[in-house]
Amino acid sequence: MINLMLKKIKKLFFPVCLSALIILPGCLAPGAESSAPAAFVFRDDLGHEVRVSGSARVVAASTSYAQTWMLAGGKLTGATQDVFEELKDLPKGVADVGSLHSPSLEKIVALRPQLVLLSADISGHVKLYESLKSAGVPVAYFSVENFEAYLNMLKILTKITGRQDLYERNGLEIRSRIQKVIGRAKGKPSPKVLLLRSNSSHVTARNSSTMAGSMLKDMGCVNIADREKGLLENLSMEVILKEDPDFIFVVYMGDSAEKSQASLQKQLLSNPAWAGLTAVKNKRYIVLPKELFHLKPNNRWAESYELLWKLLYGS
After folding, report:
1. pTM
2. 226 φ/ψ sector (left φ>0, alpha ψ -120 to 50, else beta)
3. pLDDT, tens digit, for every residue of 23-39?
4. Contact (Cβ atoms closer than 8 angstroms) between residue 264 and residue 202
């Protein structure tokens, strides 16, 4: 009789326990996930609240942001065409989502990304916000024009990936190197500089609010476009002659250095007065490397500062 009762209890108890294992988190097998991971929430550079619940499927709409994401330990699902052109070590399988300035909304959404990295400074990116939000796609906007902005972006991305070690290696260690270079520049004479940006169609002066301009300012330089604001609108040889900078730095844009050089030749170098400038006579007219002063240098930012030190102070 007792054995019969035990058999009946087992028949009743086993299904109930099985149900409890399925329903109650406390009954899950060791190592099994009881719920989705908690979302990481932050504010982007346009003030949007961004909620990220995973990092397996990420789209980056610029070379700089794609590289920063990978420096944070992330893997790319999609990227804009410039990324394929500039990053030679891009892993296979990354999808093309269109051009840098006009990414394809349809291609991005089709990838079902858990996060899209866009630039706050590109109008074609900003206009995608409402459509991506309506599609339920998390999107974060960043504006990176100096090292501290890069460091902030890297910190956020490494929190998403959980790679604090990469924040230290690709961020804090780089900042330490930069601070040493800037420290060495303190107390040095303040060179007067003209910073130019050239592409296939025109040449413009750049002030200290730009990436290369902010680095020159950190190194103690006086940028003539900061006080001669008219240079930003009209590149006047008369003003350049009056200011007579100690250094003239040029950064090329676009995919053709030859075309950028031709623009410079047409607009400035062909002027007979150009050869009389102090910077030109002293061979201090210098073309800066595009990868360090136009594209965001990211984990090579300290190299940019170290090169400026050598050019400005000769050691």
Report:
1. 0.84
2. alpha
3. 333 333 343 333 334 68
4. no
